[in-house]
Amino acid sequence: MSSNNSPFVIAVDHCSLIVADTDKALEFYQGILGLPLDDSRPDLGYPGAWLQVGSGQIHLLEVPNPDSMENRPAHGGRDHHVALQVSDLNALMQRLDKAAIKYSKSKSARTALFCRDFDGNAIELVEK
């Protein structure tokens, strides 16, 4: 039970990202970022995947995207994005470079960068 001064929201459980091709998206999220697949995803009537991120998850949804991906800002920090904490940003930058994935460093003076997955979803990678 929560007191009047305690927050009701205590954590982020998951976020959902729309992708055009689940297998291609997994090349980014599993292959480059190294996120493990959660095989407990039930048949939801459309393709997708659940990926484990600490105690939370990223849900990939292969469904029609209602949002235009045109005219998105080049710097992902000016777009809606998911921020993921990473253990070694320099090593991850090498993986992004090898995969020819463009990124820009955070403008907030944090050890962080922004990139986009193969579907144009903005991802912030933060080393703490």
UniProtKB/TrEMBL annotation:
Give the matching PROSITE patterns: VOC
Stretches assigned to the VOC domain: 11-128
Q: Which residues form a coiled coil?
A: none
Query: Where does the chain cross the membrane?
Result: none
Please name one Pfam family that this protein belongs to: Glyoxalase
List, alphabetically, the PANTHER family matched.
Answer: GLYOXALASE FAMILY PROTEIN, VOC DOMAIN-CONTAINING PROTEIN
- Name assigned to this protein: Gb/AAD55473.1
